[in-house]
Amino acid sequence: MTAWTGAGHGISALDVAAALGLPAPTEAQQRVIESPPAPALVVAGAGSGKTETMAGRVVWLVANGHVRRDQILGLTFTRKAAGELAERIGARLALIDEYGRRGLLPHLPEIVASHALDRVSKAANGRQREVVRSQVLDELAQRFGTAGDSAPLSAEDLLIRPKVSTYNAFADGIVREHAARIGRESDVAMLSQAASWMLVRDVVLRADLPELEQIDRSVAGVVDAVQRLAGDSLDHRVDLDRADRIALRQAEAFEPYSSNADVATAVANLRALPALSVLVRDYIAEKERRGVLDFADQVSGAYDIVESSPDVREDLRQQHQVVLLDEYQDTSVIQTQFLARLFRDSAVMAVGDPHQSIYGWRGASADNLHAFARTFSEQETVGNYSLMTSWRNDRSILGVANRILGPLRRPGLDVPPLEARPGAGPGAVEVDFPLTVDEEARAVAEWFAARRAAHDDPAKPHTGAVLFRSKRHMQTFAAALAAQGIPHRILGLGGLLATPEVVDVVSTLRVLHDPTAGSALIRLLVGPRFSVGVADMAALQGLAAELSRRDSGLLPLDDELRKRIRASRGADEALSIIDAVDVLRGLSDDYRLLSGITPEGRSRIRAAGEMLERLRRASSLPLPDMLRLIELELRLDIELAANETRGPARIAATQLRAFTDEVRSFLAADERGTISSLLAWLEKAESTDELVPRPEPPEPGVVQLLTVHGSKGLEWDAVAVVRMVEGELPSRPTDTSGWFGFGVLPFALRGDSAALPTFSWIAPSDEELDPAKRLKAGIASLTSKSKTAPGAITVFKDSYREYQQEEERRLAYVAVTRARSHLLLTGAHWAGQKQPKAPSPYLIEAMEVLGRRPIEPVDPDENPYEGPGATLTWPLDPLGARRGIVESAAAAVRAAAEGDPVASPELVRLLAERAARLHGVDAPPPTRVPASRFKDYVTDFAGTVSSLVRPMPERPYRQTRLGTLFHAWVERRSELVGVGQRVDEALWEVDEDDLSFGESAGGAEVSSADAADLSTLQEIFEASEWGSLKPIAVEIEIDFALGGGALPGDEGHIVICKLDAVYRREDRGGRIEIVDWKTGKAPRTPQEREERMLQLALYRLAYHRRFGVPLDEIDVALYYVADDLVIRGDRVYSEPELFQRWSAARAAR
């Protein structure tokens, strides 16, 4: 189809923008918005307004009547991106509906051309503009004779909306609905990345494979390989048996030349693949046994369904007439195949940027954009569009970005350079390349201090970020920012593990778990909590050595036994400083073994031992509670609140809160997680940079530190891209072996094999009779480094290295395009290594664009981190540069304590508040009153108001959690989605690709007890009268005004009604029924029943007020699911009656 069916209203994208009061789209954006219903590829550069353009396309389609709004599907990768797109679509459609319900859409081109909307654009933003727009549209409706057509949308119409989802959530919905077609259960838990890794680790540790003994890899290395292989085999639809045969065949071909180390390594890796394949199958079987899936299973299962079920495929094509694929460059091969099977030759539009494809390590294929035409079109002509005007970056930043991406351009896909927006500022790009990384960090901190000082818009606090290729030096830069007093925050688990407070917590966990973790204990002992000195630490080490030569009664061992012990274990195992601390606690001060430790040292070491003993006794606590206890024992909460160099206390404490959140995510799928498994996962996080932080928006007034991978999709006022040196950005490839590496699929079996290097080798012929010469020739044909005749493996590795370096260049491009107006590019020659670092090629290219002089090399023999210059005083002063301030503050407190204290104004107010609380509070009730608390007001008005004036934290009861899970399950079962603050804001499904909705309702973070109770509630509900009915709305919120002016000082109140479900009961003549699900205890007395029905009476009134349904045609019911008890409210309260109950309760207090 090359044109839309029907003429539509003839509305252009320019008309839509004018109607909405938005800037006119550019010509390029207009072409995309108005493109015909055929496959289309949009190459959209960084900051080019693709979200705005996609929202514009949806509104243009709906305004012209080309498709219904529920026939539009938008897919992206994260909930953040889905939320941004859905929010814009929602706001735009809400305004277009104002024209539509007045019958003005067919006249919109004429209205725009007549400048009738100028009054609206001239009105102030906010409420005034809404009022003026309403007046203008009413006048236009009178003018065009469409005023009589005006009618509010029904609830059903308001709940019809475009679907915006994540790729994985869309696939998951298909799998859950049609799971039986592929032999799966519909309700299964989803494994997060952490939970998947933990399950693979469990499979590997329990494996009984003799072949594993031949694999010279750590447990973590095997776990990583199995997890990667499992994901790749699903992503590329690979038969593992076939992969094993290819690997073994290649190993046999290499075997005669395995006397060469490189060839031997390749042979060992290839021969290990069948054993790893067995572990992958065990992992798959274990997932089936536990009833869980990972993200690769989602898309693979959805592909199996649409491939084998033509009816499902056709239904989905009919449901989704227009499809928008966002961030298409990050899709995997299986995602592309799945979507192409569904939407080939339809109105599918893919939007992406090949230069921002940076997630190759998790399955994304940069070749997908280049292959779009052949993948999504068999009959239709593919439209090609580009959006390359950057609405984010100033001109100088774009100059650097275009220079970096220049070498990435390749034939077959037109990707023009980025262009500056009209009116773009010059921007500022600075370069700094000092001698050492410490000087680099100080320069970055000073630069941010200057940027923040120059920021002159108090309404919009400055935002900033420091971007790293790896987390290695993150803490160095955080410390420099702290020294400047700049609030900062590290994002991502890998970076968090380097922050001092998190290091202390993890060290404590290691000491509790491992009696040989002496280095972790040393950190705690010499840290600010205990501050044990160097002499005492040496004496403690001596005590540990002496204890290793004694028995449990502290008597010396005989010489023969001591020799056998030394021969049976390493020195580190023989000497346990942890044991020494425990022994010291039980010895009196006059014991000779303790003579080398000072009295103060003994006291501090005993305090540490007692703390560890308390923590060991509490080790059965859930891990989040254990972490909180460790935080309190180490007094980290006090330190973070008092340490002004970490920024405000709320910022400093967020690092620990963020770490706890990461631990909760780790435990989400398996509440049996132990300290051992957590420490293993943390070691994984420490050793890799592939754990992308959850997307968090820029934080006003705070400099965020994160990896470039984590910065995708974000932007800041000022950005520093640091460590732009060879080996860091670009990073040095850790493995260039390709499919000769450990646990890697043969490239020929991958769906993106066309973009990968190929291995070509002709083995030496058997004509050479001399075995030695034949062996030498064979090895040379594989591994020769000769420039004229390089070996086949050498050529293959070089090609694969170049392939990997392309992603490094894309990373650099993503990094520099995060800055709006100010960009700093830095590096340093020395960062603790043996040889100086050279500037990154990307930094050199940027300097060429800026006209800067080249960076001069330094003398490799003058390493500032070697020799006397590296000497430090130890132990470090815990207060550091803060000592003067802290001591002066302490002196002030002591001086104040000597005289009669005078209450500060703040204290006076607190005392007055306490006195008022003791005598009762005559505070006004809130303007917004939840219907669920209405009964509390009418039964105890004063007590309810007092609880709001000074609320006390309440424990999250298990029944509340169970109720939340049940409500989420009913909502998901209904195939409807509840709305936000108003009914007309429900524009999208709240889809989440890995956490809250799917896991909470599906069971991934549900305890076994909760799961059992939830299952019981589900069975009862299925058998109830509502089990076979489909609601017309679920979880909708309606607010209405109750009263106003009836009492002195009473200006009325907004009652907030959140309706669980609304049914149209055909068995009762089409009457409306509002039902509220209850999972708690049912009321015991008639008075309790009446009080609880007041909430339903408000619901009935709210629905009447919103949708005009007569009160006597609305039924209400409370359903106590656990008791299978239905309570119906036959009495119909009028609004005056309800307000009288409120007024009487208020007057009586």
Quaternary structure: single chain
Mean pLDDT metric: 83
The major beta sheet can be summarized as: 6 strands, parallel
Number of helices: 44
- Unreliable spans: 567-574, 952-958, 977-1005, 1045-1049
Task: Tell me the structural class.
Answer: alpha/beta
Strand order of the largest sheet: 3-2-6-7-1-8
Give the terminus-to-terminus CA distance.
Answer: 70 Å
Secondary structure: helix percent: 40-55%
The radius of gyration computed from the alpha-carbon positions, rounded to a whole number of angstroms, is 34 Å
Number of strands: 22
The percentage of residues in β strands lies in: 5-15%
Q: Label the overall shape.
A: globular
What would your notes on this structure say?
Helices cover 48% and strands 10% of the residues. The chain contains 44 helices and 22 strands. A six-stranded parallel sheet has the order 3-2-6-7-1-8. Strand 9 (389-390), helix 18 and strand 10 form a beta-alpha-beta unit. The chain is globular.
Task: Summarize, please.
It is built from 44 helices and 22 strands.
Strand-helix topology:
Elements: H1 13-20, H2 27-33, E1 40-44, H3 50-64, E2 72-76, H4 79-100, H5 108-113, H6 118-122, H7 127-143, H8 155-158, E3 163-166, H9 167-177, E4 189-190, H10 193-206, H11 219-235, H12 240-254, H13 261-290, E5 292-293, H14 295-308, H15 310-319, E6 322-325, H16 333-343, E7 347-352, H17 372-376, E8 383-387, E9 389-390, H18 395-405, E10 419-420, E11 428-432, H19 437-454, E12 464-468, H20 474-483, E13 488-490, H21 493-496, H22 500-513, H23 518-526, H24 534-547, H25 559-568, H26 571-574, H27 577-586, H28 599-617, H29 623-633, H30 636-642, H31 649-667, H32 675-687, E14 703-707, E15 716-721, H33 771-783, H34 792-816, E16 819-826, H35 841-850, H36 883-898, H37 905-919, E17 928-930, H38 934-939, H39 941-949, H40 958-974, H41 996-1002, H42 1008-1023, E18 1033-1042, E19 1053-1065, E20 1071-1078, H43 1086-1107, E21 1114-1120, E22 1125-1128, H44 1135-1148
Parallel strand pairs: 1-7, 1-8, 2-3, 2-6, 4-5, 6-7, 9-10, 11-16, 12-14, 12-15, 13-14, 15-16, 17-19, 20-21
Antiparallel strand pairs: 18-19, 19-20, 21-22
